[in-house]
Amino acid sequence: MIKIQNVVDDLLAPVTPIAGSVDTLKFGNPQTEVKGIVVAFMASQQVLEWSVAMGANLIITHEGTFFSHHDAKESTYVNDPIYKAKSRFIEESGLAIYRFHDYWHRYEPDGIMEGLIHALDWNDHVTEHLPAASIVAVQPMKLEQVIEHIKKKLGIRYVRTVGDLSTSCSRIGLLAGYRGGGDNAIPLFANYKLDLIIYGEGPEWETPEYVRDAVHLGRHQALVVLGHSESEQPGMKLLADRLRHKYSTIPVHYLPVDPVFKVV
């Protein structure tokens, strides 16, 4: 019998313990037998309902279930009707929810980044893995060609971009999730001689404005913003694939969700 605690222990094993990590069992009993596993970027209400319908009793999620990175902040919403409805559904369904965020990012290479690189079919083009980014070198392509490649490989309908669509891109920096802030992203252009940075999410007044100024000053640089979930879901798919291989007797499902925003 495989218990929830067995799965948790296996997930944490490759990484030195992280003090204050958000990676904990949010709901459920660690001694419960695992009947089925759902892996998702976030335990949205839709994912919760799908999990119950599939007969899974353990959800492994990357982001927080209640709209905050830190559990302490979730107390802000305890009287909110959506928080109450979601909590009640989880309790009544008997679902266990384990958050797997910090440790997955500390795998070597970072599991989220590895999944994104694999999805983009750039495994053979990685030149360096950094703590918060990966550098890839591809055959020169116009920015618009890179964007079409991204949309096709990730199965997404749109991205946001800064720069001339005809800009030639060969050296690319990848930053998944909320790593697009200026402190992380901007130095990469000079330090690694990048033509393009692709990231999930970040403050709009930092890296995007830097690239706007760089282009105005005649630099051939560009930026592509994928969206947070769009950049991290491939990493959760990779996790699901590994769990499916490890626990061959337990159904393991990867549940992607559509982009949260609609472009109108």
- What is the percent of helical residues? 25-40%
State the distance separating the first and last CA atoms.
50 Å
Annotated CATH homologous superfamily of the largest domain = NIF3 (NGG1p interacting factor 3)-like
**For the report, how would you describe the main beta sheet?**
6 strands, mixed
Radius of gyration of CA atoms, rounded to a whole number: 19 Å
Category from helices, strands and their pairing: alpha/beta
Residue-averaged pLDDT: 96
The ordered H/E elements are HEEHEHEHHEEHEEHEHEHE
Spatial arrangement of strands, main beta sheet: 5-6-8-9-10-7
Count helical runs: 9
Low-pLDDT residue spans: none
Shape descriptor reads globular
- Report strand %: 15-25%
Could you please say which CATH topology of the largest domain applies here?
Udp-n-acetylmuramoylalanyl-d-glutamate--2,6- Diaminopimelate Ligase, Chain: A, domain 1
What does this structure look like?
With 264 residues, the protein is an alpha/beta fold. It folds into two domains: 4-106 and 231-254, NIF3 (NGG1p interacting factor 3)-like (Udp-n-acetylmuramoylalanyl-d-glutamate--2,6- Diaminopimelate Ligase, Chain: A, domain 1), CATH 3.40.1390.30; 111-225, NIF3 (NGG1p interacting factor 3)-like (Udp-n-acetylmuramoylalanyl-d-glutamate--2,6- Diaminopimelate Ligase, Chain: A, domain 1, 3-Layer(aba) Sandwich). It contains nine helices and eleven strands. Strand 9 (196-199), helix 8 and strand 10 (222-225) form a beta-alpha-beta unit. Helix 5 (111-119) crosses helix 9. It is globular and about 60 Å long.
